[in-house]
Amino acid sequence: MKAMNSFKHAIAASFISIGASMGIVSLASAAPTVIGFEDFGPVGISGPTVTNQYPGVLFSSTGSNVNIVSTQPGIGDGDNFLCTGSPGINCTGETILTFDNPVSGVSFLAVGSNNSGVQALVDVFVNGAFAATNNITVSGIFNTPDLVDLSAFNNVTSIRIHDITDGGGLGWDNFTFTSAVPEPETYAMLLLGLGLLGFVANRKKAIAV
Ligand SMILES: [Ca+2]
Ligand SMILES: [Ca+2]
User: Which ligand is nearest to the CA of 166?
Assistant: First the structure.
């Protein structure tokens, strides 16, 4: 009987680990959110201000700067990109993204570069605490967006783009991230595993009495 209980424990443990593995798989395969600003339609060089229009993330800036959607085909991906600056478009203002839940797989495009090399910086905050400052290095080829890859960071809660020195500033496009919130099937598998553990524990108690 003791051997039988050990066997059941092993089965329950296996189910939990299968559940956990599936959780990891479903986290990894969660579709990333991509914010490319195309849904605003053509808005001209100085379009609407982006703040909380996109689920999962809040856009902001400091001082008198605002996050403006701009239409200039051929510079970013599609027609529209984000330009943060004082009204009148200089695209040199600080851009802050604050995520509702921690995210992973963060990347975005730097667009409209005129000068090559490090032309901006981005601070990464993990679980609410400052983690690192990364260089934003661009090609200096105006119509070629440069990828800023922050996928080395997990549980990112905000990013802050600042110190833009590129001539005429830089725009931003295709903000991409994957939410770290578990999917329903992850919860289902964890509950199944817990249920089995409870069942085995009850069985063991009954036999002991
Ligand atoms: Ca775009
Ligand atoms: Ca520029």
Answer: 2
The ligand whose atoms approach the alpha carbon of 143 most closely is 2
Domain limits at 112? 33-179
* CATH, residue 103: 2.60.120.260
Are 123 and 194 members of one domain?
Answer: no
CA distances from residue 11 to 16, 19, 21 in whole angstroms, order as listed: 9, 12, 15
Interval between CA 199 and ligand 2 midpoint (Å): 64
pTM value is 0.75
Residues 97 and 191 in one domain: no
- Tokens 């679980």 correspond to 127
Query: Ligand 1 center to residue 38 CA distance, Å?
Result: 5
Q: How far, in Å, from the CA of 174 to the mean position of ligand 1?
A: 6
Model confidence over 94-114: pLDDT tens digits?
A: 999 999 999 999 999 999 999
**How many domains, the chain?**
2
Rg of the chain on CA atoms, in Å: 24
